[in-house]
Design brief:
heterodimer; A: alpha/beta; Rossmann fold; seven-stranded mixed β-sheet; six-stranded mixed β-sheet; about 20% strand; globular; B: mainly alpha; two-stranded antiparallel sheet; 15 helices; about 0% strand
C-alpha cells in the first residue's frame, strides 16, 4: 500500500509530460486498403506515406498508418480508433468508396477533417468534414462523353462493376449527362471482379450493336470485358475509366486492349504532359521519388491521391497552427476551414480549388485522355 | 435471344460448369471421408493457376517455400508422434518423405530453365508444389481434430481458408495471372466458334471424372476411401487407417483443385482470391448432390454453370443472387425428403 501511494504522483507526472509532448505534435491518421481486393489501390497509397515528411515548420508529424483490408467494417473501426484513441488532427482514409463512407461518419461525428482517397457521395454534415482527392466521376464521365460526341457516338453501352459502388456512381453520372451530348445509354451489364467469364454480358452488348462501350472496373479486371469484346469481334470504340490504367491492365489485356481510350488523371503519363500543365512538375517529383524507392515502373495513379492529400494538408496545417494548438478541437476546425479555402493547389492529379460547396475542387485539368498504343498509354488531345 | 447466342451461352456455361463439377466432386469426396466441408478448395484453384503463371513467366513457384515449411512442420509433428509410440525406426523415413524430399525438389527446380520447359513439364512442376499442401494441411490442421463435430471441422476449414487467401496475396501479389492456352485457336461448328481450350477443359474434366470413378471402383486405395466414407469405424476395424484416408482424399482434392486452376488460367484471369467464389459454386453443386452423390453433384455443378451463364445474359446484376438462391429450394427439398441425422449420432 505504501509503495503504491508513493508511485502514484510519479506516474501522473510522467503521463502529463507525455501528454504535453503529444499535444504539440501533429498526428495524422491514415487508413488505406493495403490488403484485400483493393490492395492495388491501397498498396501504393501506403507506400506513399513512407515518402512523406515527418515534420512541418519544426513541428513533428506522427503518422499512424492502418490497414483497412478493403473492408468497410475495418475502415469504420480504424477511423474510430484513430479518432478516439490516437486523437488524430487529420484523417486520410478510404481507398474505396464504401470505406470512405464508413470513415466519413466517424469524422463528422468527432469533427475531424477527413481527406478521402476515393470518390464518394458524402453529404450534409459528412460533406462538411470530407475533402475528396480523386477527380469526381462526373468530371471524368464528361471527358469520355465529349470524346464520344466528337466521334459521332450515338449509343453507349455499359459493362462494369454492378451492383457495386464504383459501377453505380458511374451509371448515375452517365445517365445524368448523356442527354446533353445526344447519346443514348444502354444496355447496362454488370460483372464482378472475381468473375471468371463475362461471355453472357458481352454477347448481349454486341447484339445491341452500340457505337461505343464503356468498361467501368479497376486494374486488371477491367481488361476482361475489354478483351472479351475484342475477341468476339466488337469493332466500336471501347472506353475505360480512371480505375483501369495500370501495368497489370496492359499485361493482362495485351493486344486485345489496343486502341482503347481511357480517361485518367494526369499522373500516370506525367512526362507526356505539355510543360504548361500544372501537374507536370509535381507529378514528376512524386514519380521520381516513388520509383526510386519502390522500383522503376511501380508508379500507380492511386498512390498519387495520397501525395495530393499531403499537398493539401501541408498548406493547411501552418494556417491552422496560427489559430490553435494541434490536438485540440479548435485546431481540427481551423484545419478544416483552411483546407476549404485553398485555391490553385497543384497536385499530381490536377489543380484543387476548394470552396464551401466544392470539396473536390478539380476542373478539366484533372483529366487526360489516354489511348493504348503499341502496348503503352499515350496522351491524346481529342 | 437467337439460337447462336443460346449456343454461345451454353458453351460458356458448360465450360465453367465442368470446373465447378470437378470441385464439387472433390468437396463431396472430402466431406464423405473426413466430414470436413472444405472451404479452402477454391484456394487450390488460385494456387494452381497462379503457380502455373509464375512458372510460365520463368519464376520459381512461390508456394514452394510453403511446401517446404509445412513439410518440416509435418516431419516434426510426425517424429514426435513416432517417438511417443517408441517407433524411432520410422524417423528416417518420416524426415526424408516430409522434409528432405521437398527441399531436394526445390533445389532441382531452382536449376531448371523453367521458362523454356515443355508445357506439360511446367504443369507437372506447378502441381508438384501445390498438391502436397493438401495432405500437409490435413496433417497439421485436421488430423488432430479428426474426431470432432462437423461444426468444429467447418470452423477449422474457414480458418484455413483465410490463412491460404492471405498467403496467396503474399505469394502472388494483388495482380492476377493468365497463362497461354494449351492449344491456340479454335474451330467453327455451325454458327458457334469453340476455342480449343474449351474442348481441353471439358475433355480433361470428363477424363478426370472417369479416372476418379475407376480409382474408386478398381484400386485398393479407392476402395479404402469408399469404405471410410460409408462407415469410418467399420473401416478402421478392417485395418484401414483413417489418417491415411484423410491424407489421401486431401491429396486428391488438392490435385483436382490445382489442376482445375491450370485448366481455366488460359481463358480467364485468376487473382489470389478468385478461388473462393469458384469453390462456392462447386459447393452449390455438391449441395445439390446432397454432399453424398457424385453424379448428382457433377450434374448440379453443370446446372450452376449454365444458370450462371444464362443469368449473366438476362440479368447480369443479379447473377450471383440467382445462382446462390438455387441452394434454398434444394435444401428445402432435401430436408423434407431425407431422414435427418444429428451430427453427434454419426460417430
Amino acid at each position: 500500500m505504501k509503495i503504491k501511494l508513493s508511485i502514484k504522483p510519479l506516474v501522473i507526472a510522467l503521463s502529463l509530460i507525455g501528454a504535453g509532448n503529444a499535444l504539440a505534435d501533429i498526428t495524422i491518421g491514415v487508413s488505406v486498403s493495403a490488403t484485400g481486393s483493393a490492395a492495388v489501390l491501397g498498396g501504393p497509397q501506403k507506400n506513399t506515406t513512407e515518402l512523406l515528411p515527418t515534420s512541418i515548420g519544426g513541428e513533428k508529424i506522427i503518422w499512424i498508418v492502418l490497414d483497412e483490408a478493403t473492408d468497410p467494417t475495418a475502415a469504420a473501426k480504424n477511423a474510430s480508433k484513430l479518432i478516439n484513441e490516437n486523437k488524430v488532427d487529420l484523417l486520410i482514409a478510404g481507398s474505396i468508396t464504401p470505406n470512405v463512407m464508413a470513415a466519413a461518419g466517424a469524422a463528422a461525428e468527432s469533427k475531424t477533417p477527413l481527406i478521402a482517397l476515393a470518390p464518394n457521395p458524402a453529404d450534409g454534415e459528412k460533406f462538411k468534414w470530407t475533402f475528396t482527392m480523386p477527380q469526381g466521376i462526373g468530371l471524368m464521365a464528361e471527358g469520355i462523353l465529349e470524346h464520344a460526341k466528337a466521334h459521332n457516338v450515338k449509343t453507349l453501352a455499359f459493362i462494369g462493376y454492378h451492383p457495386d459502388a464504383y459501377g453505380e456512381v458511374w451509371i448515375k453520372a452517365l445517365q445524368a449527362n448523356v442527354a446533353k451530348y445526344g447519346i443514348t445509354f444502354g444496355p447496362i451489364e454488370g460483372f464482378a471482379r472475381t468473375d471468371t467469364s463475362v461471355t453472357g454480358q458481352v454477347v448481349k452488348i454486341i447484339s445491341a450493336k452500340p457505337d461505343a462501350v464503356i468498361v467501368v472496373a479497376s486494374g486488371a479486371p477491367a481488361a476482361m470485358p475489354h478483351s472479351a469484346l475484342t475477341e468476339r469481334g466488337y469493332k466500336g470504340q471501347i472506353y475505360q475509366t480512371h480505375g483501369a490504367p495500370s501495368p497489370a491492365f496492359l499485361k493482362i489485356g495485351g493486344k486485345n486492349v489496343e486502341g482503347g481510350i481511357i480517361v485518367a488523371g494526369p499522373l500516370i503519363e506525367w512526362d507526356q504532359l505539355p510543360d504548361s500543365h500544372p501537374s507536370k512538375k509535381v507529378g514528376g517529383e512524386y514519380a521520381k521519388l516513388y520509383e526510386a524507392k519502390f522500383g522503376a515502373g511501380s508508379l500507380s495513379s492511386f498512390g498519387g491521391h495520397m501525395w495530393d492529400a499531403w499537398q493539401i494538408a501541408s498548406r493547411a496545417i501552418p494556417v491552422a497552427k496560427k489559430k490553435a494548438k494541434p490536438g485540440t478541437a479548435e485546431f481540427r476546425a481551423a484545419l478544416r476551414d483552411a483546407i476549404e479555402s485553398e485555391k490553385e493547389v497543384a497536385g499530381v492529379h490536377g489543380v484543387f480549388n476548394m470552396s464551401p460547396t466544392n470539396h473536390n475542387g478539380h476542373d478539366a485539368r484533372g483529366r487526360v485522355l489516354l489511348q493504348v498504343q503499341n502496348g503503352a498509354f499515350k496522351v491524346i488531345s481529342k | 435471344m437467337d439460337s447462336s447466342v443460346a449456343l454461345v451461352l451454353a458453351q460458356d456455361g458448360i465450360t465453367n460448369g465442368a470446373i465447378y463439377a470437378l470441385l464439387s466432386l472433390a468437396l463431396v469426396l472430402v466431406f464423405a471421408v473426413t466430414r470436413v466441408i472444405f472451404i479452402p478448395q477454391g484456394e487450390f484453384v488460385a494456387y494452381g493457376a497462379l503457380s502455373m503463371a509464375a512458372i510460365n513467366a520463368g519464376f520459381l513457384p512461390p508456394t514452394m517455400w510453403l511446401v517446404v515449411t509445412l513439410g518440416i512442420a509435418v516431419a516434426i509433428v510426425d517424429s514426435v508422434a513416432a517417438l511417443r509410440e517408441e517407433a524411432a525406426a520410422r524417423l528416417p523415413m518420416i524426415i526424408f518423405k516430409n522434409a528432405v524430399l521437398p527441399i531436394l525438389a526445390l533445389v532441382v527446380v531452382r536449376y531448371l530453365p523453367l521458362k523454356s520447359l515443355a508445357y506439360p513439364l511446367q504443369v507437372a512442376i506447378a502441381l508438384a508444389f501445390v498438391v502436397p499442401l493438401g495432405p500437409q494441411i490435413y496433417r497439421l490442421a485436421f488430423q488432430p481434430v479428426a474426431e470432432a463435430t462437423v461444426l468444429l471441422l467447418l470452423i477449422v476449414s474457414v480458418a484455413v481458408h483465410f490463412v491460404l487467401v492471405g498467403l496467396g496475396l503474399y505469394f502472388f501479389g494483388a495482380e492476377g495471372g493468365r497463362t497461354p492456352a494449351f492449344t491456340d485457336g479454335g474451330i467453327t461448328l455451325g454458327a458457334t466458334y469453340i476455342q480449343f481450350q474449351t474442348l481441353w477443359i471439358v475433355g480433361i474434366a470428363a477424363a478426370l471424372i472417369a479416372g476418379l470413378a475407376l480409382f474408386f471402383e478398381r484400386s485398393i486405395y479407392g476402395k479404402a476411401l469408399r469404405a471410410t466414407a460409408i462407415n469410418r469405424t467399420g473401416a478402421r476395424l478392417m485395418g484401414i487407417s483413417a489418417d491415411l484416408a484423410g491424407k489421401l482424399c486431401f491429396t486428391l482434392a488438392a490435385l483436382v483443385g490445382a489442376f482445375s486452376g491450370i485448366l481455366i488460367a488460359p481463358i480467364t484471369t485468376i487473382y489470389y482470391d478468385t478461388g473462393f467464389l469458384i469453390g462456392l459454386k462447386g459447393f452449390v453443386g455438391a449441395i445439390i448432390g446432397g454432399l453424398a452423390s457424385y453424379p448428382l453433384a457433377a450434374a448440379g455443378a453443370i446446372l450452376v454453370g449454365l444458370l450462371e451463364s444464362y443469368s449473366s445474359f438476362y440479368a447480369s446484376a443479379y447473377k450471383e443472387v440467382i445462382v446462390f438462391t438455387l441452394i434454398i429450394p434444394v435444401l428445402l427439398w432435401q430436408s423434407l425428403t431425407k431422414h435427418h441425422v444429428e451430427d453427434e449420432d454419426e460417430h
